[in-house]
Design brief:
Strand content: 5-15%
Number of helices: 9
Shape: elongated
Strand order of the largest sheet: 2-1-3-4
Mean pLDDT: 79
Length: 220
Amino acid sequence: MEVTYSIRAHDGQVYGPYPLPEILTWIGEGRIGPDTPMTRSDLGSWQPAGDYSELRFPNTGVPSPTPPPPPTAGTAGPESQTAPTPDLSVLKSGASWFYWIAGLTAVNAGAWMAGSNMRFVVGTALVDVFNAMGENANARGLAIVLDVLLIALFVVCGIFAHKAHIWAFAVGITVYLLDTLLCLLAQEWIGLAFHAWALFGLAQAMRLAWQLRPLLRDQR
């Protein structure tokens, strides 16, 4: 798990967590000084930033002020400086839905390829359409290719959604909305409820990714 840091500003507000590269950038800009109260995720105790050996401070001999972290790009003023940091766990958790979708789709596709009648109702309806088409011996190869492409699509969307790429959310959600419509037409109510739950988590994560665009753009 990545080690992160939180900062206590002069006004008593706590900001973070932030990854090490971002902390080092703010040190170089003079926004964090060696006397800035800071805690590391693997320690849980507060101590001056200068006590952390991995943080490199310019040898000026003059303590730097301890302002809050810089506001999100495109904003200004005291309100933006004291705004709470978005919880990145919401982004990660929401993006992980793509992996769940890919995994359940792979199970259903694998069962069909093995000749089993086992099927998870929470899998994608699209793979059922492909598999039904593959019951024709002449179309079996095409059905397998389409199954693999569908699984790969959701895996790729998951990888890039974890990095807050908006296009990954947009593509994955669009395909899954189509799949949700197929569930509705087939009246698969359990599958439909699962789709709605997954879409809610994905929408929440996409909204957060959109808010974080200015912050994350500089880290890529």
